[in-house]
Write a structure and sequence with these properties.
Blueprint (H helix, E strand, L loop, with lengths): L1 E6 L3 E8 L2 E9 L4 H12 L11 E6 L1 H7 L7 E5 L14 E4 L3 E2 L5 E3 L3 H13 L4 E6 L7 H13 L4 E4 H4 L5 H31 L6 E4 L5 E3 H4 L9 H13 L6 E6 L4 E7 L2 E2 L7 E2 L2 E2 L8 E3 L5 E6 L2 E8 L13 H7 L8 H12 L6 H27 L3 H10 L7 E5 L3 H12 L2 E3 L7 H8 L5 E7 L4 E4 L4 E4 L7 H18 L9 E13 L2 E13 L17
Parallel strand pairs: 1-4, 4-11, 5-6, 5-9, 9-10, 13-21, 21-22
Antiparallel strand pairs: 1-2, 2-3, 7-8, 11-12, 13-14, 14-15, 14-18, 16-17, 19-20, 23-24, 23-27, 24-25, 26-27
Helix pairs in contact: 1-6, 8-14, 9-10, 9-11, 10-11, 11-13
């Protein structure tokens, strides 16, 4: 049996799957006291006296970080960067208080300029004056040599022991300095809230005596062991959208092509499935216009949902990109699109009289009926989501995988099926599809599709290898292990083979041998080391991961060993 749990901004959903069938579902409010929500969700899907040793896997997904970023409710962070030679400091337009400090590592990992600790102190004084207590420390080429980041981190902690430091080399090992800065900044801005989430998960599992392996869904549709995820929280930045995409993949026939629209309370998440395979972004996650090093499905979170606040400004009715509480019909403080859906009879949530009162507050000063107010709100929401889907198509069509798919269709065509999931799908997806000239589909279990997507996500592990043939050494980052390279000729193929060997070791340690279908190379970088016009060695950066995907389609009986 598998358990999937999706912790959203509005609701926490949970499912219990057995042999490819849904045995129980739960949808409970996500409270400030997250532990109580998790316990209630577990209690609704697990009968009293149920032997929890039958549970083989638990997977969590969450829109928490997505929602924090969409609503800009993350913590304030100071950026301390060491860009070294190259672009002028004015070219780095990062979204935070940024201090440039002297110090440089070259592409080989050699120090060429020592860290200016006096400059560091000056930067820290500036941060302290602005009451910034979370610092992101990033140096160019820190993935080659982290000495400067470690030195600055120790200096900060010695001077301000209660400050939290996030260092770039731990967040992202790839080259591309600006993306590593943004990734580190977001990791620092969301880490505290994410660690609170992890603690609540661990406590809930302990209280319900669930000892099965536990994973967190990543943005690319793969998973991380819960114990490892606390150090890589940024990987879950689009965990919720990934869950809804896998959920649609599991709830629709194999090989289907469709646009995924997950309408939640806080955000609406968009994704694309081409011939049964979720589209992967070739550039990494884009957050507020900035690219990061987070490997992700080609998704977007639109800050509008069933619980978005609605207000009247003059003669205009405005839907804000912010949630301030439950819908008015459920006892919340302000009108929302959910109240509009209730008035139009498109959902049956909450108190109909309070929903009517919410529309009356908006429409009475304008002299229009409750139904007309509700219609305006729903039209605005559907227009916004349809517009965002069209904008996403402009991005999706640039992806290499999309172009290959288009060639295979032998004509230029866009997917014409829109699959709606999430709590708001029933009331909105038909109108959204009509605006796109597409066919709407709402699959079974659509309200808990995210939790299903989490439950069926195939467990994944990765191994990151960094090798320097001139020095004759290699490192496996996840293990903190360094050793000498084999004596024989070492090339790119052997680098991939060595990384795979370490991946198999990790998979065996976690007992996931039966989940290993194939191995995918997620990063492969080779750099020549040139001295006196002669190539004297090569640097290899290789990351391999057990293949992402779903274990099975829901509703199809599977073998005992797979359930």
């Amino acid at each position: 049996m598998y358990i999937g749990v999706d912790v959203g901004g509005t609701y926490t959903d949970a499912v219990l799957l057995e042999k490819g069938r849904v045995r129980a579902t739960a949808k409970v409010p996500t409270r400030t006291d997250l532990l109580s929500s998790l316990l209630e969700a577990f209690d609704k899907i697990i009968m009293q006296g149920f032997p929890t040793e039958l549970i083989k896997k638990v997977v969590f997904s969450t829109t928490m970080i997505t929602n924090l970023i969409a609503e800009k409710k993350y913590d304030r962070v100071g950026l301390l960067v060491m860009p070294g030679p190259g672009l002028c400091s004015s070219a780095y337009n990062f979204p935070a208080d940024t201090r440039i400090v002297s110090g440089a590592i070259d592409y080989r990992g050699r120090e060429i300029v020592p860290v200016d600790l006096a400059g560091v102190d000056q930067a820290l004084t500036g941060f302290a004056a602005k009451n910034l207590r979370k610092i992101a420390i990033v140096g160019k080429f820190s993935s080659r040599n982290n000495a400067h980041e470690v030195q600055v981190e120790k200096h900060v902690q010695k001077k301000f022991p209660d400050w939290h430091c996030e260092v770039g080399h731990k967040v992202a090992g790839q080259l591309n300095f600006p993306r590593r800065v943004i990734s580190t900044y977001l990791a620092a801005a969301t880490r505290e809230k994410y660690q609170n989430f992890i603690r609540s998960v661990q406590e809930a599992l302990a209280k319900r005596q669930i000892t099965a392996p536990v994973f967190i869904l990543k943005a690319d549709g793969g998973t991380l062991p819960l114990s490892y995820s606390s150090e890589t929280a940024i990987e879950t930045i689009f965990s919720g959208p990934a869950a809804s995409t896998l959920g649609v993949q599991a709830l629709t026939p194999a090989g289907e092509t469709s646009v995924v629209v997950d309408i939640g309370g806080t955000t609406t998440d968009l994704a694309l499935i081409l011939s049964g395979v979720p589209l992967l972004s070739s550039k990494g996650a884009r957050v507020n216009g900035y690219l990061t090093h987070v490997r992700t499905l080609a998704v977007k979170s639109v800050p509008i949902g069933g619980d978005s606040a609605v207000d009247r400004v003059g003669r205009d009715i405005i839907v804000y990109s912010e949630r301030v509480g439950q819908p008015y019909c459920l006892g919340g403080p302000v009108p929302t699109p959910t109240d509009a859906l209730r008035v139009l009879g498109l959902v049956m949530l909450g108190d109909g009289e309070r929903a009517g009162e919410a529309m009356r507050m908006l429409g009475e000063p304008l002299g229009i009926s409750n139904e007309e107010v509700a219609g305006r709100i729903i039209s605005f929401v559907c227009d916004t989501i349809a517009r965002e889907i069209r904008l996403m198509f402009a991005q999706w069509e640039q992806e290499p995988a999309y172009r290959v798919w288009e060639v295979l269709q032998k004509k230029k065509v866009r997917p014409n099926t829109v699959v709606g999931v999430g709590g708001g799908a029933a009331g909105l997806i038909t109108q959204i599809a009509a605006r796109l000239g597409a066919s709407p589909i709402i699959p079974p279990y659509a309200p808990v599709a995210n939790a299903i997507g989490a439950a069926v996500a195939r467990p994944t592990l990765q191994a990151s290898l960094r090798a320097d043939t001139e020095q004759g050494t290699y490192t496996i980052l996840e293990e903190g292990y360094q050793d000498q390279l084999p004596a024989e000729h070492f090339d790119e193929g052997k680098a991939v083979e060595l990384a795979k060997n370490w991946l198999f070791k990790r998979i065996t340690r976690y007992g996931l041998e039966k989940d290993l279908k194939e191995v995918e190379v997620t990063r492969r970088e080779v750099f020549n080391v040139v001295r006196d016009w002669v190539t004297v060695g090569r640097l290899y950066d290789v990351v391999v991961q057990s293949q992402r995907g779903i274990t099975y389609h829901v509703g199809i009986e599977v073998n005992e060993d797979d359930a």
